[in-house]
């Protein structure tokens, strides 16, 4: 059995100071996709190129303390794809793909960090541009190989994917256009939401993000964005 997991770190230095390596030892994944590394190459070279016996492969943002994704794995990939050839978004460190190809099968594990539009209209429009690029890219990839897409998608797809869906219909992350993009990906795009396949009706247990305001975590007022 191959154990794969995904985690938004909100800073790799912060995560390791809060017990990331002990958690990895306990959960023992064969591969973990991480997002929001928020570090540069020299930072990783010092301490974080490998964690708990897993070797890391990264796509880092040019801007310090921003974004960045990675995949840590026990297995040696046959190829590593850093970025998806986007002049606008590759400098933000949002896509890394590890390929594990054999003569009989081509398959990949992807760690991606979709933009958030919550800071304002300018970033929301950037998010829409990212989605417009990512859909055809994934469809072209799907025509070539099997893949698992992990990451912080920054979209709650269904009403059961967030606590207060009625009050968030005009907010980034639950906009009709974003939800329609996810629907398209999972219908005509042919991808499978693995969590919803296993837990089709789960609500409160499914959340992966909570606001820092109003004791959202303590009250479990969350969103499933990952």
Automatic annotation (TrEMBL):
The record marks 226 as: Important for catalytic activity. The record marks 154 as: Transition state stabilizer. Probably binds two magnesium or manganese ions per subunit. Residues 6-226 form the Endonuclease/exonuclease/phosphatase domain. Signal peptide: none annotated. Keywords: Hydrolase, Magnesium, Manganese, Metal-binding. Its cofactor is Mg(2+); Mn(2+). GO terms for molecular function: DNA-(apurinic or apyrimidinic site) endonuclease activity; double-stranded DNA 3'-5' DNA exonuclease activity; metal ion binding; phosphoric diester hydrolase activity. One of its GO terms (biological process) is base-excision repair. InterPro entries: AP_endonuc_1, Endo/exonu/phosph_ase_sf, Endo/exonuclease/phosphatase. Pfam families: Exo_endo_phos. It comes from the Bacteria. NCBIfam families: exoDNase_III (TIGR00195), xth (TIGR00633). This is Exodeoxyribonuclease III. It comes from Rhodoferax lacus.
């Amino acid at each position: 059995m191959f154990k794969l997991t995904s985690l938004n770190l909100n800073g790799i230095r912060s995560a390791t100071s809060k017990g990331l390596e002990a958690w990895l030892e306990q959960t023992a994944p064969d591969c973990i996709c991480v997002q929001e590394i928020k570090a540069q190459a020299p930072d990783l070279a010092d301490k974080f190129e490998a964690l708990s016996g897993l070797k890391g492969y990264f796509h880092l943002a040019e801007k310090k303390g921003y974004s960045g994704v990675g995949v840590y794995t026990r297995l040696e990939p046959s190829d590593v794809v850093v970025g998806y050839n986007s002049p606008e978004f590759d400098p933000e460190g949002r896509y890394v793909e590890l390929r594990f190809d054999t003569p009989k099968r081509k398959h990949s594990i992807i760690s991606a960090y979709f933009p958030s539009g919550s800071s304002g209209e300018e970033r929301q429009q950037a998010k829409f541009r990212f989605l417009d690029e990512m859909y055809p890219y994934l469809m072209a990839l799907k025509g070539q190989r099997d893949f698992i897409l992990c990451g912080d998608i920054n979209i709650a797809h269904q009403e059961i994917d967030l606590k207060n869906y009625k009050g968030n219909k005009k907010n980034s992350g639950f906009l009709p256009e974003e939800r329609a993009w996810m629907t398209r990906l999972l219908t005509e795009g042919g991808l499978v939401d693995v969590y919803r396949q296993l837990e089709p009706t789960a609500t409160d247990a499914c959340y992966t993000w909570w606001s820092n305001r109003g004791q959202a975590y303590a009250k479990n007022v969350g969103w499933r964005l990952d």
